Amino acid sequence: MSEGHTERLQAALDGRYRIERKLGEGGMATVYLAKDLRHNRSVALKVLKPELAAVVGAGRFLAEIETTANLQHPHILPLFDSGEADGLLFYVMPHVEGESLRARLDREHQLSVDEAVRIATNVAEALDYAHRHGVIHRDIKPANILLLDGKPVIADFGIALAVSHAGGGRLTETGLSLGTPHYMSPEQATGDQTVGLATDIWALGCVLYEMLVGEPPYTGSTPQAVLGKIVTGEADLVTKHRRSVPPHVDAAIRRALEKVPADRFGSAYDMAHALGDPAFRHGEGGSGAGARAGARVTRLGAAGWGVAAVLAGIAAWALVRSTHEPSVSRFDVALPEGLIALTGLDISPDGSHLVFTARGESDPDGSLYHRALDELMPTRIPGTEGAEQPRFSPDGGSVAFIVEPTIRSVSLRGTPPLTIVSDSVYAVAGLTWAPDGMIYFGKFADESGLWRVAEGGGTPEEIEPLAGMSASILDVLPNGRGLLIYADGRVSVLSSETGELTPLVEGIEARYASSGHIVYTSVDGAGTLLAAPFDADRLRVTGPSRTITEGLSVYVNGRRSDLALSETGHLVYRLGRSGPGEGVLVWLGRDGAVEVVSPELSGVIEAFAISPNGRRIAFDRTSEDGMDIWVYDLDAGTSSRLTFDGELNRRPEWSPDGAEIGFVSSKDGMQAFYSIPADGGGPARLLRSPAAGSVIWEALWTPDLSWLLYRQLQRAGAAHLLYAAPHADSVPRPLVETEFFNAAMSLSPDGRWLAYQSNESGQNEVYVRPFPGPGGRTVISRGGGGGPIWSRDGRKILYEAGGSWVVAAVGTDPTFRVESHQPFASVEGFSLANTIQRYDVSPDGERILAIRDLSGAPTRTVIVQNFFEELKGMTRN
């Protein structure tokens, strides 16, 4: 772009952006480093070349680019802004302080195999996300892959598509083309304008090829020569140039570079899958596109495990196998970079596989991950988002897990998850998969006691009510004589024959060892791991407990820890704390600055709310007595406790006049909604009881105090939104009554509009509908979102999507409309939840009140092989 065009652009953008310097020029646009004056940040401002803009047209380009503006993914560079300035078309993206993959390859020529595969896998994840949302990039190349602290971020996502759609056939008439010759697919090279996701897969195959070999698969002296080879030639095998490339990586590249689009991977997900699967083969020398029977589930988004830990594990494994007398060995299992462990792990009965919960950049809600001990990398198990408490099946081929309010299972051979129990109503307290094909679990809230269900699903059967006692299932004795359970601060055994409950030790998480012991974690919260000799026939402890180690992770108010034991005698446990657990309330500004409200506002806090005048914070906090409602005075810096009944009192909500605080409580044998004076000057009173077989999850008042909106969790797993007058005897009226899970309600300040989240589309999205109706609903988020909160002025809705908080500017007169979306801040390091609100907005809308996670990742995950030998030695001594 000429100097005159630059001056013209600066004049047109005066007051919005200040152009600082030209960064470069590509086939479609000129790139400038600019300052976003409104948000005081550096941005990359890209201006379409005038000849391209003339063909495309402003209106059509801006309309098309809107479809890409809401892509939210850790490996996709977001679109901040777009528009027309004095006839020039521009779009704005973050300025990344780093380099492009192009610059890296120009400097280093080739990358290590591990790094190249990691980058390609991350890019494939981003492509899969975009493809599932109907967006094709069409110009994947090293120059469009930026490296931010070594992690790839795709730039210009969907820009080529927007230009193509807007310009239509007129592009070819001008001689302009989209795509870079070395990375263009055969269908692009032959002028096909209806290319699909297979084009992006081809281009990614070319990029991975170049990262490994040092040049693209097809080269030539002119662009025409390159395109000719793409259409008619055959690329060399990667392994011809670099023998260190594993066969499955070579096979994945060959499939990505198939001439016929239908012969390539069916999705970018499948390509990422293949890059992580050592069994994958394609074409000659392979076994077809599929993996071998029983192959491990392959990874999505996890990097390599720590080399030192892996080598230590392999050495220990070899040592165990090489001796007739099994010896005890210990080694750490390091998490890959960017993966943070959550609560819950298990080891397969034969001791050869681990499964654990974790979250990563592209998986903020967390999922199950699986690792075979003879492999170097963990793999994410698709369809397990939000999973907790994993337990292996007796044959080790499947895993049962909890996603409230359901129990599900998933095969490690790639079949979709199966819902086993969909009507647990509230909370499942532990589960185990018994050799008889039954899954045992506990419940608490309105239906406590112990239950079981067939592994294929069906109606759960209550096996022991325990007189209303909440209990967690820990383990099933292999002789069928009883169940190990946790209840009332101790590990007990329930006889299968007599139903008698016998206390064993003061502990929490426990497992039975066939060496004749129970292994358990101390009840004092210190995380001491102990073992006690146990007679599985007489169902009693036969000797004193011995300490094994200390410092295990303990969480959920000291009632659970990360501990697992295989039938073959391999022990796994985590040292250190793991989340979700303790946190501290902080203010988060638009600039990313974090300010602790007060060290006093810390602990196990589930939910909180800012008072209408912005001067007080109501919050719940877990203690040894249960969970209680507190109020913190921001002016005085003091806290006062409002509830003292030893029940679960949580999820506070201010009345609009600030006089009362509503909360959900388990008192009176049900989970209902109560209200208490905010100054503590009176007792709590019941405002809303749940319908039979359901519980109330959250509630809020309308601004005029005439109605109470509440969410009722149904037995079938649905969550209905209803409203009623704010007294216990009022008749409820349906608001959103579907079979889907609806949550996170927020009313506009004028009481006319309700924002909420629902999974009716297959994933959580944010919706707005008139209150109380009639009228339809408007989707606010795109590609996933949840937890909406209205600003106090009613002109914005804050919600969480794709690892960030997003602000949607909205209008409500005469009808509801969305005017723009802007990112607010990253959610990294903050504790969120899928089903309840865990943040609030300051009255001026400039800060978020959120929970900074203090627990972090466990310091170490330890495997003890042949642990039974250590237990036997303890018994002899």
Describe this structure in words.
This protein has 877 residues and is α+β, with helices and mostly antiparallel strands. The protein has three domains: 3-275, Transferase(Phosphotransferase), domain 1, CATH 1.10.510; 307-580 and 858-876, Neuraminidase (6 Propeller); 598-790, Neuraminidase (6 Propeller). The strands form 15 sheets. It has a five-stranded antiparallel beta sheet with strand order 1-2-3-5-4. Strands 26, 27, 28, 29 and 30 form a five-stranded antiparallel beta sheet that branches. Strands 35, 36, 37, 58 and 59 form a five-stranded antiparallel beta sheet that branches. Helix 5 runs antiparallel to helix 9 (197-213), helix 5 (113-132) packs antiparallel against helix 13 and helix 9 (197-213) crosses helix 12 (247-256). It is globular, with a radius of gyration of 29 Å. The protein starts with a helix and ends with a helix. 49% of the residues are buried.
